[in-house]
Write a structure and sequence with these properties.
By secondary structure, the protein is of the alpha/beta class. It has nine helices and twelve strands.
Length: 323
């Protein structure tokens, strides 16, 4: 991927596109997908759309009881207990999936946390980077043989416009010198984008392509760590919890870009790209407002992506992907 490829393709879809619009002509019979967090918010919309198109969906879930209740009406759907902040749990889930499948067509990394209080996990790692990035990094690495065995697998990672808050803090990625919940979120979302860039570099020879995306502004369970007053102060909600902020999408509109990334023929032969509003995003200039859209160059830089991959591999001990 080069920055010249990071520009819109002229997709027929837009910011108003819904899951139903994207999946209208899709037949995924015989395909298998893994959707992290696929039982609430955007993940639930994604699971619903994939199963409706005929796909078998496996949902790694931190709250398996809640997940099974949410998905009980959907056929061809299985829940596997998984805590992305616990790499032992991730490896156990991946082993279970490997035992059950001979190939994996789609992996949708939808689960995530946002602006959480400071939490230390594992050997003192910052919690948002661990859950949003290290957990997915390990899951994909352990399932990579199944992706390589498929015919044109795709991996889709939910990033965010929040990546514009900061690049990777190479000097202190775990905030040992002072915690800022929004910078921690921004770094994790930059990590999601860079993950897709280097995974695509490693995987394209096996037909495995990867994309990252900004789903748009949506009120879902992602905001559960924020008080109602904090969301009112940001202009997102009114005092009754109703969405009043400009430019907010419905959950179906928010999940549409991920489903487009997973299925669109416009993306055949492409990868390592950052997407928004069901199209490839343009590169945004430093200092431009987050809500203006686009992706910062540092979030799709191949050199930074390779450096983060090496850091993540050393930290997690995940199985290396070899070209």
């Amino acid at each position: 991927m080069t920055l010249t490829e990071q520009q819109p393709l002229g997709s027929p879809f837009s910011t108003a596109t819904t899951c139903e619009d994207v999946m209208a002509d899709q037949d995924l019979s015989g395909r298998t997908a893994v959707v992290t967090g696929g039982y609430s918010g955007l993940g639930l919309e994604t699971t619903r759309a994939l199963t409706a198109a005929g796909a078998r969906v496996i949902v790694p879930a931190r709250r398996p009881g809640l997940a099974r209740a949410a998905l009980k009406e959907m056929s061809h759907c299985e829940v596997i207990p998984t805590d992305l902040a616990d790499l032992g749990s991730v490896r156990t889930a991946a082993a279970h999936i490997r035992d059950r499948l001979d190939r994996l067509d789609l992996l949708m990394a939808v689960a995530g946390v946002m602006a959480t209080p400071e939490r230390r996990v594992g050997p003192g790692w910052e919690g948002q980077l661990t859950t949003n990035h290290f957990g997915h990094f390990t899951l994909v690495s352990e399932l990579y043989p199944l992706l390589a065995a498929a015919d044109g697998a795709r991996v889709v990672a939910n990033s965010s416009a929040g990546h514009t808050l900061t690049g990777i803090r190479w000097h202190d990625p775990h905030f040992h010198t002072g915690y800022d919940k929004w910078l921690a979120y921004g770094q994790a979302k930059t990590a999601n984008s860079l993950f897709a860039v280097h995974l695509d570099t490693l995987g394209r020879g096996d037909g495995v392509r990867a994309f990252a995306l900004h789903p748009g502004k949506i009120i879902t369970g992602l905001q559960r760590e924020m008080t109602l007053q904090a969301q009112i102060d940001r202009g997102w909600l009114d005092g009754h919890g109703n969405v009043v902020g400009d430019g907010f999408k419905t959950p179906s509109q928010g999940a549409a870009t991920g489903l487009w990334a997973a299925t669109s023929p416009l993306l055949d032969g492409r990868g390592g790209l950052y997407l928004e509003d069901c199209d490839v995003a343009r590169v945004s200039a430093p200092g431009t407002p987050m809500d203006d859209g686009g992706v910062r160059a540092y979030a799709v830089a191949p050199e930074a992506a390779a450096r983060l991959w090496d850091l993540s591999l050393a930290a997690t001990g995940a199985t290396p992907i070899t070209r």
